[in-house]
Amino acid sequence: MEFDEYQKKATKYDLFDDPSVNNLAEPAFSEKILGLVGEAGETADKVKKIIRDKGGEASDEDKDAIKKELGDVLWYIANVSRYLGFSLSDVAKTNIDKLESRYQRNKLHGAGDER
């Protein structure tokens, strides 16, 4: 599935479905940001428990559970992007362009957004 196709399909499940947010304090947008952080936390928690309880060895069931959490993260990213007026493919391209620039300048390591 292509990024923009996913983003369009993901809209169906947005209970607010109000992409015209200019005020980032609007509940529709805030709910997406908080959901993104929550789902990322759930993903991290699953990995933490695999490290703590299983010595880092992930079963197929563990991997499937992580995949589902990553899907939830993706849903929130798609909708945050949509609320800001970005296509998901544009977000992905912008990220690859940034990483390629850092790679070409040997700046993948280090800190700071503009390295």
Describe the protein.
The protein has four helices and no strands. It has 115 residues and is mostly helical. The chain has two domains: 24-84; 87-115. The chain starts with a helix and ends in an 11-residue tail after the last helix.
| Rg from Cα | 17 Å
Report the end-to-end length measured between terminal Cα atoms. Answer: 32 Å
What's the main sheet like?
none
- The beta-strand count equals 0
Shape: globular
Number of domains: 2
Q: Beta-strand level of the residues, as a percent range?
A: under 5%
What string, H for helix and E for strand, traces the elements in order? Answer: HHHH
Arithmetic mean pLDDT: 93
Percent in helix: 55-70%
Strand-pairing-aware structural class = mainly alpha
Spans where pLDDT lies below 50 across 5 or more residues: none
Total of helices: 4
Features:
67% helix; 115 residues; 2 domains; mainly alpha; 4 helices
Topology, please?
Blueprint: H1 3-10, H2 27-54, H3 60-83, H4 88-104
Helix pairs in contact: 1-3, 2-3
What's this entry about, in short?
The chain has helices at residues 3-10, 27-54, 60-83, 88-104. The protein is mainly α and 115 residues long. The protein has 2 domains: 24-84; 87-115.
